[in-house]
Amino acid sequence: MTVRIRRTFEFDVPGERVWEFIADPGKRAGAISVVDDFETDDRSTTWHVRLPIPVLNSTVTVETEDVTRDEPRYVKFVGRSRVMHVTGEHTIEETPDGCRLHNEFVVDGRFPGVERYFERHLDDELANLETALRRDLGLRA
Length: 141
What we know:
By secondary structure, this protein is α+β, with helices and mostly antiparallel strands. It has one domain (2-137): 2-Layer Sandwich (Alpha-D-Glucose-1,6-Bisphosphate, Chain A, domain 4). The chain is built from three helices and seven strands, in the order βααββββββα. A seven-stranded antiparallel β-sheet has the order 1-7-6-5-4-3-2. A hairpin with a 2-residue loop joins β6 (84-95) and β7 (98-109). The longest helix is centred in the last third of the chain and has 24 residues, at 114-137. The N and C termini lie far apart (32 Å).
């Protein structure tokens, strides 16, 4: 089963400031609550994910990579592991008062319970991303 979520955030800052956060794989990883730790370079990041699923008692390594970038407007990343595949897309749209950030995440569970977990918590993870981004921008979360 695949879980998909789309959310749009509004910011009263120029899109370039949002791009500085959203184009940084480490900042994106740091906003995800189930990512215990991560290592990153320019375009790839290894997430160490701990999902609270009873039959999964270990940290899962998810290898992520930015596959498309259209600076300063769009970034798409994919992540693969034995328990899930994840895709994230972020598109920045300029507005008269700042910008909108359109987000889409797709999680394809490959292990029992993964899709059920993300069905219940993917919206919370996007809220975490928005909160981290607002803090990074110096805006009220």
